[in-house]
Specification:
With 548 residues, the chain is mainly alpha-helical. It has 13 helices and three strands. The protein has a three-stranded antiparallel β-sheet with strand order 1-2-3. Strand 2 and strand 3 form a beta hairpin. The longest helix has 80 residues. The chain starts with 7 loop residues before the first helix and ends with a helix.
């Protein structure tokens, strides 16, 4: 665009007008010694601005090729840009005089378009110079990331932990089937649930003890290697079942049957509380399928305790084989030491509670002997008041015997069995720690084998034996995948086991609190009943003194 100054006739007119204005100002100065008022100055300034804005444009620059391109882009002609003069034209005899800045004219009079067109939306989104695409707001769009299966499983597990589905399982109505050595016990398993995966909200099945052990074995085989803590099944007792098999009366082994029934109910209840296991197909089939379940071969001679002893022995063997290769994670090391100490003290507490239960049962036996002796004495006593007091005393002692028997059962089922369950759960956690080391050693073994294969590839390349190189490269590809899978399995096992231990700690604190309060309430109830019974007997004893 050309920058030539306007024609000289316009300059002369401006000079003449300015000279006339200066003459008028000089005349006003002579007439008014106080100067020109502010209002007159403003009017003069406005007149100057209006004259400048309304001046006709005599010459316009011609359009260039760039202007034509802009017209094509915006589909409408653009007016050429007119430069604004900020300096008054001058001659050689007159120095240049700067004029005040001229305000930008209104768009209606002289539209001045932006010489640089704004980028279009399509240019923003599909510009070849950009490495990453942008959104309409100018922000870079991240490429779509495919979710890892591990992350999806973790998200599903977190959703499952927060669900509000309920499941209540009870074990009742033990029944003896058969006679002799082929006899066994079955139990009625009743399930009430709101889980949509089950066919109905309430159903019943009959299961024998070996079915419970088979369920535990299948769940352990499926979840222990993933870091899940599977609650152990009750111990298998050969002596207890032998008494039942050769007992002709229904009361034979009743205490053993009741204890096993309670253990099986607690076992299923722990499975139902687990956010993942409670939705497992094996558990659903166990609770819903009315037919017989396939018998696991391992349950014939292996109980929960036997399986835990096997896991412990295998764990010790793996630890010896691993040596310095075992993973050293301070968090897991601290938990393992903590659980070793906890298991030791829980076993001591269990022994003490079992001794208390035995002593309370011996007290019940002694109370029963006192009842018989006092009743016999009351029959031979000639003093009627004393005989009535002794008879009443035998009734009180019988009531006391019943209270001690009830409390001994509370000590067993509420307190002692809870401690025993957690001793076994700590054994299961030790099995998870052992499995974690095994997964880590598998990863390290794959890593070592991969390194050996790469060394072999380097030797073959250096010696020029190219005929064996493709086979080694295929093996490297396979072991690279195995090494990545091993690392992924180990990381997943650690993450899952951490969450399982955190859940275990929460459940342990909650359950111990509930059972401890229940145990204390049972003790308080027994003491209150004892006080009430002896207070009721006090008038009978006082009546003996009055008649005497």
């Amino acid at each position: 665009m050309s920058d030539e100054p306007p024609p000289m006739d316009i300059e002369e007119e401006e000079t003449q007008e300015k000279q006339v204005k200066e003459d008028k100002e000089d005349e006003q100065d002579d007439d008014n010694i106080f100067g020109t008022p502010e209002t007159e100055k403003k009017e003069v300034k406005q007149e100057e601005e209006e004259e400048i804005v309304t001046k006709p444009v005599t010459q316009l620059p011609e359009k260039t090729t760039e202007d034509e391109k802009l017209d094509d882009l915006f589909d409408e002609p653009l007016e050429p840009f007119k430069p604004v003069e900020t300096e008054r034209p001058h001659t050689d005899s007159e120095p240049p005089t700067l004029e005040p800045s001229i305000p930008e004219p209104k768009p209606q009079t002289i539209p001045v378009p932006d010489p640089v067109p704004p980028p279009s939306v399509t240019q923003d989104l599909f510009d070849d110079d950009e490495e990453e695409p942008k959104s309409k707001t100018g922000e870079q769009l991240s490429p779509p990331v495919e979710l890892n299966k591990e992350e999806e499983e973790e998200e599903e597990e977190e959703e499952e932990e927060d669900d509000e589905f309920e499941m209540t399982i009870t074990v009742s109505a033990p029944e003896k089937v058969g006679d002799g050595m082929s006899a066994y016990m079955t139990y009625l398993v009743t399930t009430k649930t709101t889980l949509p995966s089950f066919k109905s909200p309430e159903f019943y099945v009959r299961r024998r003890f070996s079915d419970f052990l088979g369920l535990y074995y299948r769940l352990s085989e499926k979840y222990v290697q993933l870091g899940r803590i599977v609650p152990p099944a009750p111990e298998k007792s050969v002596t207890g079942m032998t008494k039942i098999k050769f007992s002709k009366s229904e009361e034979g082994g009743a205490a053993f049957i009741e204890r096993r029934r309670a253990n099986l109910e607690r076992y299923l209840s722990r499975l139902a509380k687990h956010p993942v296991i409670k939705k497992d197909e094996e558990l659903q089939n166990f609770l819903e399928n009315p037919g017989e379940l396939p018998k696991a071969k391992e349950t014939a001679a292996m109980s929960g305790a036997g399986f835990m002893r096997l896991v412990k022995n295998v764990g010790e063997s793996i630890s010896k084989m691993a040596g310095k290769k075992s993973d050293s994670d301070k968090w897991f090391d601290d938990r393992q030491q903590e659980y070793d100490v906890l298991e030791y003290h829980l076993k001591k507490l269990l022994n003490a509670v079992e001794s208390l239960i035995i002593a309370r049962r011996e007290l019940c036996t002694s109370s029963g002997a006192v009842v018989k002796s006092v009743a016999t004495l009351a029959n031979v006593e000639e003093n009627n008041s004393l005989s009535r007091a002794l008879t009443r005393l035998s009734e009180v002692e019988e009531r006391v015997e019943g209270l001690h028997q009830e409390q001994s059962n509370k000590d067993l089922y509420v307190f002692a069995e809870t401690i025993r369950d957690y001793v076994m759960l700590l054994g299961s956690i030790k099995g998870n720690f052992t499995q974690r080391i095994k997964v880590y050693n598998n990863w390290m073994s794959a890593q070592k084998t991969l390194q050996n294969k790469r060394d072999t590839e380097a030797k073959l390349t250096a010696t020029g034996k190219m005929d064996k190189l493709p086979l080694v490269q295929d093996e490297i590809h396979d072991w690279t995948k195995k090494e990545k899978d091993g690392e992924k399995a180990f990381n997943k096992c650690c993450k899952v086991l951490r969450r399982e231990i955190e859940r275990f700690e929460t459940e342990r604190s909650k359950e111990f609190k509930e059972k401890f309060i229940e145990h204390l309430e049972a003790l308080m109830h027994m003491q209150e009943e004892l006080v009430r019974v002896w207070e009721e007997y006090l008038p009978d004893a006082q009546a003996i003194d009055a008649e005497a």
